[in-house]
């Protein structure tokens, strides 16, 4: 059963991203929202960790949160979604786990 993991906290002062990566299963996806999008800063340790994931793990980021933080240029691996895309993702995966 594939799970969509929702992250919204900055990986630079919070351990949720690291914990999520440890528990990630094949075919799970990660959606970065809010301050979690800072994990995509080029050259950062969180960005390297995300890029190192197997291709079976899809990485998503919320467009509005990327734009609000000036993170417009993303690697091709990142699937950028808007709010309707966010809702669609929640229905595509078997489970949704919000890392509150």
From TrEMBL:
UniProt xrefs under Gene3D superfamilies: DsrEFH-like
GO biological process, any: tRNA wobble position uridine thiolation
GO cellular component, one term: sulfurtransferase complex
Stored Pfam families: DsrH
GO MF assignments: transferase activity
Keywords, alphabetical: Transferase
NCBIfam families noted in UniProt: sulf_tusB_dsrH
Stated name of the protein: Sulfurtransferase complex subunit TusB
Originating organism: Pseudomonas nicosulfuronedens
Classification of source organism: Bacteria, Pseudomonadati, Pseudomonadota, Gammaproteobacteria, Pseudomonadales
């Amino acid at each position: 059963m594939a799970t969509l993991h929702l992250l919204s906290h900055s990986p630079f002062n919070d351990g949720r991203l690291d914990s999520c990566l440890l528990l990630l299963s094949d075919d799970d996806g990660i959606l970065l929202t809010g301050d979690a999008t800072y994990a995509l800063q080029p050259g950062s340790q969180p960005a390297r960790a995300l890029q190192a994931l197997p291709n079976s793990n899809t990485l998503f980021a919320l467009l509005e949160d990327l734009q609000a933080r000036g993170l417009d240029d993303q690697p091709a691996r990142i699937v950028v979604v808007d709010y309707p895309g966010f809702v669609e993702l929640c229905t595509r995966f078997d489970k949704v786990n919000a890392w509150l």
